[in-house]
Amino acid sequence: MSDTPIDFEAAMSRLEALVAQMESGELTLEQSVAVFEEGVTLSKQAQAALQAAEQKVKILMESNGELTVEPFVSENPSDV
To answer: On the chain, which terminus has fewer CB atoms closer than 10 Å, C or N?
Structure first.
């Protein structure tokens, strides 16, 4: 699994597939550990995507009766 972030929906879909693999009981210990590691990475990416979305929602403000969106400026340069 690369460290390139994927979108939330793709991460959740892959996590569901990984859970199914682990629940099947057909993986070796080494495979289970690798799948678990991938799952942890995907979970962190999904959490970061949720936090970014939450921040964008907080930035959404009402101005003169119209909704305006201000650009999200992350404190973490890797959150783009």
So the answer is: C
How confident is the model over 50-66, as pLDDT tens digits? 988 888 777 775 555 67
Q: Where are the domains of the chain?
A: 8-68
Residue 62 parent element (H or E): strand 61-63
Alpha-carbon separation of residue 52 from 7, 38, 71, 72, 74 (angstroms)? 12, 21, 11, 8, 8
Beta bridge partners of 63: 66
Which phi and psi angles does 66 have, rounded to 5°?
-120, 145
Q: Read off the pTM.
A: 0.66
Q: What are the phi and psi torsion angles at 67 (to 5°)? A: -80, 135
User: In CATH, which of 3.30.160, 2.60.120, 1.10.287, 1.10.3470 is domain 8-68?
Assistant: 1.10.287
